[in-house]
Design goal:
Elements (H helix, E strand, L loop, with lengths): L4 E9 L5 E10 L4 E5 L6 H7 L8 E6 L2 E2 L5 H7 E4 L12 H11 L4 H14 L15 H13 L5 E5 L7 H13 L3 E5 L3 H7 L2 E6 L2 E7 H4 L3 H6 L10 H14 L2
Helix pairs in contact: 3-4, 3-5, 4-5
């Protein structure tokens, strides 16, 4: 089966000569939820910016459902790959929530009742339909993050890329966002330092370090490898036991059917 995201031999150096990626291979299939882990400077952001053509590969290839990420395909690639940035204020710039969520699909030519249905569907998926006519700056940080997710969902992407989705959220907002992300029927690539969140949301994790893939394994297996975590500057919160947490998650999923 063709991966929905297929990265092969991706290398990239910035104009100042800093080499950020050294031949990255990453394959994500439809419906997977994958966490991208690694210390600061590992190349995670550089990799993400190649997925919808913000950066162009120095070597190697990136394809989305078989479509190469190239200049001639950028409009379609950017519809297929939706990136939710760490700061929601980078994505919310219109007068109301409704206008922000409508911006992308309207640029694709959607109008009238079809546009309104697309907007409300996206807002309902993130539990923000009641706030459609509110100015984004009147919302809490967690609410703005959910609206930012809705702006991407309104484009009906094949891949949802999340950059540190749990950062700066209070415990309730963190849990609410996890419930939303778990309910979405979309392929997810989540960049995070939050290892418990990776365990909760992503069955598979990929560790990037010094511009290469250093590990690719089920999240529950990766988080019990203390040597691997130490080598790649990944730390579990004090008192967090990934074995106990994994068992609790499995029990919850079984109870949920």
């Amino acid at each position: 089966m063709t991966p929905v995201l297929d990265v092969r031999g991706l290398a990239y150096a910035y104009p100042d000569g800093h080499q950020a990626l050294f031949g990255v291979d990453l394959h994500v299939h439809r419906g997977e939820r994958v966490a991208l882990l690694g210390p600061n400077g590992a190349g995670k952001t550089t990799l993400v910016l190649h997925l919808n053509g913000i950066l162009t590969a120095g070597a190697g290839t990136v394809a989305v459902s078989g479509l190469p990420v190239e200049k001639r395909h950028l409009a379609e690639i950017r519809r297929r790959v939706g990136i939710v940035f760490q700061d929601p204020d980078d994505q919310l710039f219109m007068g109301t929530v409704r206008q922000d969520v409508a911006f992308g699909p309207a640029n694709l030519g959607l109008r009238g009742p079809a546009l309104e249905a697309r907007v409300m569907s996206a807002l309902e998926q993130v539990g923000m339909a009641a706030y459609a006519d509110r100015p984004p700056h009147h919302l809490s940080f967690g609410q703005r993050r959910r609206v930012a997710v809705a702006t991407v969902l309104a484009m009906e992407p094949e891949i949802l890329v999340l950059d540190e989705p749990s950062s700066n959220l209070d415990p309730a907002s963190r849990r609410e966002l996890a419930e939303i992300l778990t309910s979405l029927e979309v392929t997810v690539l989540m960049v995070t330092h939050d290892l418990p969140y990776a365990l909760e949301l992503c069955e598979r994790s990929v560790v990037l370090h010094d511009g290469v893939v250093a590990a690719d394994a089920p999240t529950s297996e990766l988080l019990v490898d203390a040597d691997l975590l130490a080598r790649h500057r990944l730390e579990l919160p004090f008192g967090f036991d990934p074995v106990v947490a994994a068992d609790q998650l499995a029990a919850r999923r079984t109870a949920a059917g």
